[in-house]
Design brief:
heterodimer, A: 626 residues, Dipeptide-binding Protein, domain 1, 4 domains, seven-stranded mixed β-sheet, 18% strand, B: mainly alpha, MetI-like fold, 13 helices
């Protein structure tokens, strides 16, 4: 029965084994090769390769390289809405006013002084004389007037910042140093007009503003501290300092925003000294970089909120309802119960691992003037038992299978839209599934690369939502007004979450006409309170900005706010404008310890495989040799 | 290997009916197959490895319990190093990585098996039909097959996984409908070879229709080839599943080995040096793929003696 072919018999000398071994050997060899390959690709910059690129290039140019991952939506200031694009515009164009890096109060920008008339309807800005466009033409009030008039008359030019000019009646420039803006009704954001002023003599040649992306001719004419010299989609954006900048030229010789779509690759590049700065670190990366030489980790309170948005029934201005949001979410009790079952403390401790602050009101505590927290009896605290009671009293009983049943007799099953690119969304999705599962509510986590389509169509129940808040909160407040709803179901409005609430809108109108900062802050807080009570926007956390830079390339850099502030995505150009290169401009020669460890690991694998290979070879030829 | 005739089945002393004869013949050929298979040391090694993984996957609920996936009841803290309590350390939620690795075997194996089965089923159907009918019909079908063959499988799978909702069924479908052309070509060749044999002509002369010939005569004869192809297909399906999950196209809430690699990448485990998060799922994927390949090669060598001599 047991006829072994394997043992060598004199008649058939080892033909079978000989046939098998090369295959095994080949497998081992290819295994070793692929292991080495994998090690090489996972560690994007092979630590075995020498010559790291440094801040100081061969010709002695001091280059500041910033790792970015977000794609540029447009370089046209009239279209750009993404953080990376608006940050570039901050660097390349002047705005009428700027924010102080210390406490974000309004400071002069393109305008040196401003005043409003007694009736609050006419604003006069004095434009500075010492600002020139980078092609040598003097920048005047005429450029500012043309920019605003374009936004008021051309709908396509109002895409990005139209909310600032929708209330403008007339903008004129009586002389090169005076800009006069007449308003329909008082507007509180007049000293916080985040609109890049563009050169009229360049932009008046542009035909269709909806299609012009400002990325064909370089350098791009501007009057900010930097000038864009080159741009390749998802590869890099190069900027050179504007030597004539009125506040003083930046210290670095070049600023490069380099694309790293993978966070780990950006961190490896930072460890190698290939980039000077990277942002959006994970907790593990921050912990690892903290102990690295020549690297400073900046863990600053962020300007973002991270919220759970609930579809209030999508609708357009013409009154049509659309989308397929779950009907049960229109019941305030359900929204309340859902949020009662969300343990915000666990979100902070486990998902953000301490790099965030527990969510309260809509505006992050960093903007202390507008920060609001719910009173004790208003707070929707974490209490799963209370959440179950809330659902019980509202009539959502559990069925035999332990699932809550809606008014239509069907089990409650919600969907949540999550950004596939955001690990936090996925992580919190897992927690929500379990927390709400215990309540008897099902949750399907829909992680998509492009959440915009279902979002704009109203085809969602819940969604992970977040916005960066400006020192002036007008914009983030405006996206929840009825006025921001799309005109028809086919259009896309500025609305964030289709919220339309009469009381909120009344308060919004009041605050935008209130020039007294204290009174306006009070109104903003009332709006936040109202928003909290509706339960459509439940803020879970204020994530920190976790960033790191190389101290052997950047000697000093201004954070905003100056005490414990962030560097990337500031409300001004302070960080990159103020960055001072380190004296020796690098000399970081040593690659990271991690890279070395993994490199050694890969080498060991290769050596072991080679050893095995040789051993197998010797064995296979053993019979011939003996 | 041996030239002796198959010993007649011992278990029927009384009058043998047609079906009992057929069963005896089948038993005999299985025994012969196993005898031959046993001679392939690598094949046995692969089989042992597979049995091991399959047992772990089957008994995962007993070994680690379904609770291992829970983030709210995670026993550890984030990204702990390997220790007595957590032999492979923990992930960013504090879950035991060993538990996740064991649990992940279920998804990886399920997807690998189902996707390979789907792919081979499509390939066999297309191959048999094209080989049987021939003519312009076969030309058209085989050109379509060629078109799928030259299409980069991964790109097509990524497109499919992107446009459809994220679930393991999507991944199975994406792998299945993109990897069938090789099987189709092999099966078609074998079908043509089988159909040129005289007994097929005899069956036709006796009135056997297309369906009868394809299912009763051709299919049993291409089955060995299909079996070998399936075994080899599983390993590539498991690798594709891991790739898709690593690229973030799988269901992010389901634990699979590729998904674990993706989670590790998202947690920044590579740059922060948490090798214990990355290495085990990678090694597990390589191990299972290797085991299936070893088995597949051995089956191929047994069923196709020509292949053995040629090598």
């Amino acid at each position: 029965m047991v006829e072994r072919v394997f043992p060598r018999t004199p008649r058939r000398p080892a033909r079978q084994p000989a046939r098998q071994r090369p295959r095994l050997r080949l497998l081992l060899a290819s295994g070793a090769a692929s292991a080495a390959l994998v090690a090489g690709t996972v560690i994007p910059l092979n630590p075995l390769l020498p010559a790291p690129q440094q801040a100081q290039a061969a010709d002695g140019k001091k280059v500041l390289t910033v790792a970015v991952s977000q794609s540029v939506d447009s370089l046209s200031p009239f279209l750009a809405q993404k953080l990376v694009s608006t940050s570039i515009h901050r660097l390349t164009y002047e705005y009428l006013t700027n924010y102080d890096p210390k406490d974000a109060h309004t400071v002069p920008g393109f305008a040196t002084a401003w005043e409003s008339s007694a009736d609050k309807l006419t604003w006069t800005f004095t434009i500075r004389k010492d600002s020139k466009w980078s092609d040598g033409v003097q920048a005047t009030a005429e450029d500012a007037a043309w920019t605003f008039n374009k936004m008021m008359t051309d709908e396509n030019a109002a895409t990005a910042n139209g909310s600032f000019t929708s209330n403008f009646k007339k903008v004129t420039a009586p002389d090169p140093e005076t800009l006069v803006v007449e308003l329909n009704k008082p507007q509180a954001t007049m000293t916080a007009l985040d609109v890049p002023i563009v050169p009229k003599h360049i932009w008046e040649k542009v035909g269709d503003f909806s299609k012009f992306n400002n990325d064909k001719q370089f350098p791009i004419v501007g009057n900010g501290p930097f000038i864009i010299t080159d741009f390749k989609v998802d590869q890099y954006i190069k900027l050179k300092p504007n030597k004539d900048f009125w506040r003083g030229a930046p210290k670095f010789d070049e600023l490069v925003l380099k694309y790293y779509k993978d966070g780990d690759a950006a961190v490896a590049a930072l460890q190698k000294g290939e980039v000077s700065f990277t942002s959006g670190l994970t907790p593990a990366q921050a912990a690892a970089l903290k102990s690295a030489d020549n690297i400073k980790v900046n863990d600053a309170p962020g300007r973002r909120f991270y919220a759970l948005a609930t579809n209030p029934g999508a609708r357009s201005k013409d009154g049509k309802k659309f989308g397929n949001g779950h009907a049960a979410l229109l019941d305030p009790a359900v929204r309340k119960a859902l949020f009662q079952a969300v343990d915000r403390k666990t979100v902070i401790d486990k998902v953000f691992q301490g790099h965030a602050v527990e969510g309260k009101g809509y505006i992050p505590p960093r903007f202390s003037a507008y920060f609001w927290e719910p009173s004790a009896d208003q707070t929707i605290a974490y209490d799963p038992a209370e959440a179950a009671r809330t659902l019980d009293t509202a009539g959502y009983e559990k069925n035999a299978a332990g699932k809550r049943v809606g008014k239509d007799g069907k089990p409650l099953d919600f969907r949540i839209l999550c950004h596939a690119t955001d690990p936090n969304d996925k992580a919190i999705g897992k927690y929500l599934q379990e927390w709400w599962g215990q309540l008897g509510i099902g949750l399907k986590v829909d992680c998509l690369d492009n959440v915009s389509d279902p979002w704009l169509a109203g085809d969602y129940d819940l969604a992970f939502d977040g916005w960066s808040v400006n020192p002036d909160p007008d914009y983030v407040l405006s996206i929840h007004t009825c006025g921001a709803l799309p005109a028809t179901p086919k259009d896309s409005g500025a609305t964030d979450n289709f919220i339309c609430d009469k009381r909120y809108d009344d308060l919004y109108a009041q605050q935008s006409a209130e020039y007294d900062p204290a009174k306006r802050a009070e109104l903003v807080k009332q709006m936040e309170s109202r928003l909290y009570d509706t339960g459509y926007m439940n803020v879970m956390a204020y994530p920190n900005a976790v960033e790191a830079y190389r101290t052997d390339q950047i000697k000093s850099i201004t954070t905003m706010p100056e005490a414990a502030g962030n560097l990337w995505g500031q409300d001004g150009y302070w960080s990159w404008w103020s960055a001072v290169p380190a004296d020796d401009g690098g000399g970081s020669g040593s690659s990271s310890s991690t890279g070395v460890v993994i490199g050694i690991g890969a080498a060991v694998v290769v050596v072991a495989a080679l050893g095995l290979f040789v051993a197998m070879r010797r064995r296979s030829t053993a019979e011939d040799r003996e | 290997m041996t030239l002796e005739k198959t010993p007649p089945a011992s278990a029927d002393p009384s009058s043998p009916s047609a079906s009992s004869l057929a069963w005896a013949r089948r038993r005999g050929s299985v025994a012969r197959f196993w005898k031959e298979y046993r001679t392939h040391r690598a094949g046995l090694l692969g089989l042992a490895g597979l049995a091991f993984i399959a047992l772990i996957a089957l008994f995962a609920p007993l070994l680690v319990g379904g609770d291992v996936q829970s983030v709210t009841n995670a026993p550890g803290t984030a990204l702990e190093k390997p220790s007595g309590e957590f032999p492979l350390g923990t992930d960013q939620f504090g879950r035991s990585l060993l538990g996740l690795l064991i649990w992940g075997a279920r998804i990886s194996l399920t997807v690998g098996l189902l996707a390979a089965a789907l792919s081979v089923a499509i390939g066999t159907l297309v191959g048999v039909i094209a080989g049987h009918y021939g003519g312009w019909f076969a030309t058209v079908v085989m050109r379509i097959t060629d078109w799928f063959l030259v299409m980069p499988t991964l790109v097509l799978a990524i497109v499919l996984a992107t446009v459809m909702s994220r679930s393991i069924w999507t991944v199975i479908l994406a792998i299945g409908v993109t990897s069938w052309p090789t099987t189709a070509r092999l099966v078609r060749a074998q079908t043509i070879a089988v159909e040129s044999r005289p007994y097929i002509e005899r069956a036709r002369a006796l009135g056997g229709g297309h369906g009868h010939i394809m299912t009763r005569h051709v299919l049993p004869n291409v089955m060995p080839l299909v079996l070998a192809q399936t075994t080899l297909g599983i390993s590539s399906a498991i690798l594709t599943e891991a790739t898709l999950a690593f690229l973030g196209l799988g269901d992010p809430l389901i634990i699979s080995w590729g998904g674990m690699l993706q989670d590790a990448r998202e947690a920044g485990a590579v740059s922060s040096g948490h090798w214990w998060y990355l290495a085990p799922p990678g090694i597990a994927i390589a191990f299972v793929a290797l085991a299936f390949t070893l088995c597949g090669r051995a089956i191929e060598a047994v069923l196709n003696p020509k292949l053995g001599v040629a090598r």
